[in-house]
Write a structure and sequence with these properties.
Strand content: under 5%
Number of helices: 12
CATH topology of the largest domain: Four Helix Bundle (Hemerythrin (Met), subunit A)
Structural class: mainly alpha
Number of domains: 2
Oligomer: single chain
CATH architecture of the largest domain: Up-down Bundle
Largest sheet: 2 strands, antiparallel
Strand order of the largest sheet: 1-2
Distance between the termini: 35 Å
Length: 253
């Protein structure tokens, strides 16, 4: 069977993502997953999508499948192509004419499982933060402080999203356990659409800044219990984003 006729089930299994019902081709799957990723804020407006080779790796499909899927998204006006050395495919909007159907196929059938995964993720990130507060080195503490400044200074959605990811990667690094990081990214991929990229909604930026500040301070100062409690509360933001996207796509589900 060629990559372009791979079933949704097979493609999702390779990436470790949830497995919705089948659609006709792997290209359909990739289109749905990219559109859903935009709806969740994994890729924000104005952001350049990863290169085709990287998307193929993340989604567990062939590069030719990604190429065709991106062609469909461009034709639909979901992404804009820019030429030159800094060119690529750029996201036009978080929600577009394809979003409701894509989310309904990709996430809504698994609402109950996703709720459980979100609960598990909040509890796991509490463990990560507690461990980071116990084990952070002086260098890691300094880097966490710098990542907090970068998040505070970020202005565009793309800058804020990148700074958010970097800060949480810093907490993972401070835990000094590679397997904890693997589990964190696996859970993140499962509550999204197979890409281990933190969802982000700009409307939550002020709350995120407050919670990031509290989390980083607790980790740097070695306040283990505080770090865990703050992290567990903070990661409910991703769960809230997921619920909001599903409700927008299927309000009566």
């Amino acid at each position: 069977m060629s990559p372009d006729t791979t079933s949704r089930s097979e493609g999702a299994t390779r990436s470790g993502a949830l497995v919705p019902f089948r659609v006709s081709t792997a290209v359909d799957e990739v289109v749905d997953r990219l559109v859903t990723a935009m709806a969740l804020g994994e890729f924000v407006p104005g952001q350049r999508l990863p290169a085709e080779r990287e998307l193929a790796r993340l989604l567990g499909v062939s590069r030719s499948t990604v190429t065709e899927a991106l062609g469909r998204l461009r034709a639909a006006g979901v992404v804009e192509v820019r030429r030159g050395r800094t060119g690529g495919s750029f996201v036009q909007a978080s929600w577009n004419e394809l979003s409701a159907a894509a989310v309904s196929r990709t996430l809504v059938p698994h609402r109950s499982e996703l709720e459980q995964l979100c609960d598990l993720r909040c509890r796991w990130e509490e463990v990560v933060a507690r461990t980071a507060a116990e084990r952070r080195t002086k260098k890691q503490a300094k880097l966490l402080g710098l990542s907090l400044v970068a998040f505070e200074l970020a202005r565009s959605p793309e800058e804020q999203h990148a700074a958010d990811i970097a800060l949480h990667d810093g907490v993972l690094a401070a835990a000094r356990n590679a397997q904890m990081a693997v589990l964190s990214r696996d859970l993140l991929a499962k509550v999204a659409v197979g890409t281990p990229i933190e969802p982000f909604e700009r409307k939550f930026y002020r709350r995120a800044l407050t919670e990031h500040t509290s989390l980083v301070e607790a980790v740097i100062e070695g306040r283990v219990d505080d770090a865990g409690a703050i992290a567990r509360k903070h990661f409910t933001m991703s769960a809230r984003t997921l619920r909001a996207v599903m409700e927008r796509a299927a309000p009566d589900s």
